[in-house]
Amino acid sequence: MSTIFIFALQIGLALAGVLFAALRGGPAERLSATVVVANIILGLAVREFFPGFESMFRFINDGLAAVALLAVTVLYAAPWMGGVMLFYAAQFSLHSYYLVTGRPDTDYLHALVNNIDFGGVICCLIAGTVAALLRRGRRLRAMRAAAT
């Protein structure tokens, strides 16, 4: 399978998950979706315009995204955000390891772990959105029951 196809599929699924969170999620999911979109856009921009700095920027970009998501976690105390934080910690550690050891981040292991990790972040965001939808539905049913 072509790597460009895998890349396009992952970006497409990530954007679909983020769009779902932005449209149907609560405040924590919307803010997290914004952070993830900014992470994707900045990563793609650096990849396109500054390919020589891509490795270092991934490290910085993921660190900033993790700090922003930590703020969302503390602000909203959403349980699903714990999973996101663990995935971002793993991704940050992956980039750190490759940066410190000087290994090229173009090898198969890096791509595999990075893609699985980012997929996990998106899955947590979708799970949080579904939980927010269910919570909103229960609240609405309770209000309707109280009104009758």
Features:
148 residues, mainly alpha, 0% strand
Report on this model:
The structure is a single chain. The protein has 148 residues and is mostly helical. The protein has one domain (3-147). Helices cover 88% and strands 0% of the residues. The protein contains 5 helices and no strands. α3 (54-76) runs antiparallel to α4 (80-101) and α4 runs antiparallel to α5. The protein is elongated. The termini are far apart.
Helix and strand layout, with pairings?
Blueprint: H1 3-24, H2 27-49, H3 54-76, H4 80-101, H5 108-147
Helix pairs in contact: 1-2, 1-5, 2-3, 3-4, 4-5
Summarize the structure.
The chain is mainly α and 148 residues long.
The averaged pLDDT comes out at 88
Q: Give a quick account of the main beta sheet: strands, pairing sense, barrel closure.
A: none
- Structural class based on helices, strands and sheet pairing: mainly alpha
> How far apart lie the N and C ends?
57 Å
Order of secondary-structure elements? HHHHH
State the low-pLDDT regions, or none. none
Backbone shape = elongated
Q: Per DSSP, what share of the residues sits in E-state strands of 2 or more residues?
A: under 5%
Rg over CA atoms, rounded to whole Å, is 17 Å
In which range does the helix fraction lie?
over 70%
Strands, count: 0
Number of helices: 5
Tally of distinct domains = 1
